[in-house]
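REQUEST ID: PR-0412
SUBMITTED BY: lab tech R.K.
PRIORITY: routine
TASK: structure prediction, single protein chain
INPUT:
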Amino acid sequence: MPEPLPETTAICLGEAMIMLAGGPGPLADVEVFRRSVGGAECNVAGGLAGLGVPTGWISRLGDDGFGQHVLRDLQARGVDVGGVELDPLRPTALYVKESEDGRSRMHYYRTGSAAAAMEPGFLDRPEVSERLKQARLVHTTGITAAISTSSADMLERLATEPREYLLSVDLNWRPALWRDRDPAPLWRLLKAADIVLIGADEAEVFAGTGDPEELYELIGAPTLVVKNDAHTAMVLEPAGRTEVPALSVDVVETVGAGDAFAAGFLAGTLQGLSMVERLRLGHLNAAAVLTAPEDHAPPPAIDVRERLLKASDEEWAATRV
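STATUS: complete
OUTPUT:
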């Protein structure tokens, strides 16, 4: 008999990458690199699992050592990876982080990756379709729509077929991935989503405006979350507008903070928190990653989370991480 399917409340669908981070200095001079796992959707999957949400991550990986490391890493963080397909020919994607003069620059090596071969039929694999059927929420990003035409077609099918789960999409606009390509599939994905997360700065480039009200009209998602750098995050929905300021943070590295915010907000959504508490949980989760050198980090301790979620506005504003 087949093994029973693990409980999964949330599913994250997208590419994972190996991240190689060198010491300070130009890439040509770095001799030793530190390995970790990155990629927007798997960052969110790990963040959701860390906040107590049963979560699965679905994708394709190369049947190589890097792919095995991704699987082990996510499993160690409590993420179900039974919906992952291994490719004997295509590699696991990777990117290299170059740090110089206090700034980080990313170099991506993802062309022809195993994940880029995802296509609409991938959703018919029993390991994938059964997990999607039982999910309450499915999360993806504009990056997955951008890595290949076939992957964009897969997300279009996901967004347009009848579903019982909430569809969450983080814009994650990457102009280099859309060079010489029409972003119309991404617009359609956003308009089909139930929850859209977007940064005001990337919205200026992608949509020509960072104004939340204008974005709400343009995108039309029932729930729109607009993040304004390190200042505030707000939700626009039919019931109105809710805004919560970000925490004061001693930042170590910014990469991955947006994914951590998404994980916190979505966890709060699934756990039935108030809108203010959902935004606060997003900020708390992002703060934990901002103070770590990797793309992900454990969330604040549960007693800290519970205290700050219920704190007065004055106590929240006075908190520094």
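NOTES: The mean pLDDT is 93.
REVIEWED BY: pending
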